[in-house]
Amino acid sequence: MADKGGHPGGPGRAPEAGRPDKVRNVALVGHSGAGKTTLVEALLAATGTVQRRGRVEDGSTVSDFDEVEVRQQRSVNLALAPLTYGGIKVNLIDTPGYADFVGDLRAGLRAADAALFVISAVDGIDGLTRLLWEECAAVGMPRAVVITKIDQQRGDFDDVVLTCQDVFGEGVLPCYFPVGSGDGLTGLIGLLTQRCLDYSSGERVECDPDPAFLDRIAEQRGALIEGIIQESEDETLMDRYLAGEEIPVKSLIEDLETAVARGSFYPVLATSVPHGDHPGPVIGVLELLEVITQAFPCPLEHGIPPVTAVSGGPPKDVTCDPEGPLVAEVVKTTSDPYVGRISLVRVFSGTLRPDSTVHVSGHGLEDRGHEDHDVDERVGALSSPLGKAQRVISVCRAGDVCAVAKLSRAETGDTLSDPATPLLMAPWTMPDPLLPVAIQARSKADEDKLSQALGRLVAEDPTLRLENNSETRQLVLWCMGEAHADVLIERLRTRYGVEVERADLRVPLRETFGGTARGLGRHVKQSGGHGQYGICHIEVEPLPSGAGFEFVDKIVGGVVPRQFIPSVEKGVRQQMARGVAAGYPLVDIKVTLHDGKAHSVDSSDMAFQAAGALALKDAASKAPVPLLEPVDEISVLVGDDYVGPVMSDLTSRRGRVNGSESIPGGRTLIKAEVPQLEIVRYAIDLRSLSQGTGTFSREFLRYEPLPSHLSEKVAAESRAD
Length: 721
Known about the structure:
InterPro entries: EF-G-like_DII, EFG_II, EFG_III, EFG_III/V, EFG_IV, EFG_V, EFG_V-like, P-loop_NTPase. The chain has 16 helices and 36 strands. It is of the alpha+beta class. It is elongated and about 110 Å long.
């Protein structure tokens, strides 16, 4: 492809796109360590957007500017890095590659019109990358592949291409292949142009390829051309090619864009960016920019998610038109204690202007602490982020991405629209957080600030669910994994000045009666003046699991006055909530009130409530009171290679495997019943067992008796608390 370079001007200027067809929104996707952030630095430097490339090792990259990212040397946030090349504005969306931060990754895909899968020539494809490819395929996301680190000794470009074709399908075809390997890497050969791009001098020099490569060029070029023209709108092109006609490169490039936009053809590129102990020229970055700007779809070619009125109804006909109705979406929210809330927004339709009023709609995430909300807010300044730098822009048109200040109610996933005609975009799918982490404030001062800080974290991160468990009296963060939890706790400390400590998670158990017993409740007090008098006799029987509570009145002769019988029941219920043995709620019992005594003056509602509670405790002292544990039904989806280890692991957790079924794509769905006590950290353990490819869901099923050896241990711990 021809070099359509051109620097956008001095560093620090925010590029602006006048039309949607002059924008490319590209999400970089791949596992942690594949080289996404390093590649973004090279692209920014190649276009003059930054003066010099930053290094992950130095914490000086544009994308990884968060304190946690600098310290851990890996991305944990979605970051935007716009550049201009050949008159096209490219919004590079650098996404995290670690499974715990899949929420930001999916947000990046939502804002993008194409996904660039970044795969290391050294490490190949991991399980998460496979799953993400399938997710993109499910929504028809156009994709391309760039293989990085082709200069490293263990890097094998050809082997990784074969792996990609095996995993991703036959539509994966290289547009270039490297000349040399390791320290001997000198450049690339373009298959469409049949030209060698030599970088041995430090600059790109175009020349004729070595004759030794001609057979390989012919073979791979033929496969590439056939793959491109299969998607061509010109039905005669294949016949002309098979008849031996030479198809012009310009026509092939135009059809390459069509093929990529349809989401069934995936060009493969190769890059080498010096880093760490690997000096040398930057190879393949200009070629990648050419493919992005000439072959990737613009916003006009990528569909808009379904849009409806806030009140519901049929979908609205919305297109990517700067003159159309405003429809934009908050794909990322960050809160700063000094600057306030900043919203990263993708404008799908219309034009967003500073100081205008927009309608903010958020729906469908009540279970994660996001209340439904509809409110009008005034937009602050618009900016084009370059990492942490905010560069002011005058307007953001359909197809572009910008940052919006001062939207105090906007949260990740919210829709921005015209207040006169409020609209709502269908939300993107977010995974359920399945790792519970109990936390507690370190001091009273921290406790006072904790609620507000957590509210801001929840607004930023839809993969976080906050639970204030009234039974266990614990504050629980439901996270995606251990790394996600660490980042959240670190942000509480560094961003909001709140110190918290982890606590052992308590699973809400239950108590029940193991047999029938009678109990006497005697509450008689006389201390001068009006006394307290209430006596009742009850019988307690166990009920089947899940039956709840039953109260039976068998009083004869008015020994307990009619108005005090509900008082006895109330006292029993109150004691059931407090527990009678280990402090857990008592369930599944039948209580029969059959006798009692009252005093004409001293009996009262409160006296018989106390008597009812005492009677239940007395009965509990005469019968076994076993503990019940909650059991969940879990569905585990894993690759066929991991079915055996996963089933064995479930059995070791006192689980009962109820069956399995094959799922297309070489996976198996396993259904099992497992006690909650055994799956507190299952999100982490399953990832380890399945090399990051396994997923699971859980749903409460019922309570079952806790084994005696565990029951004694839990009861002792409860008494110690």
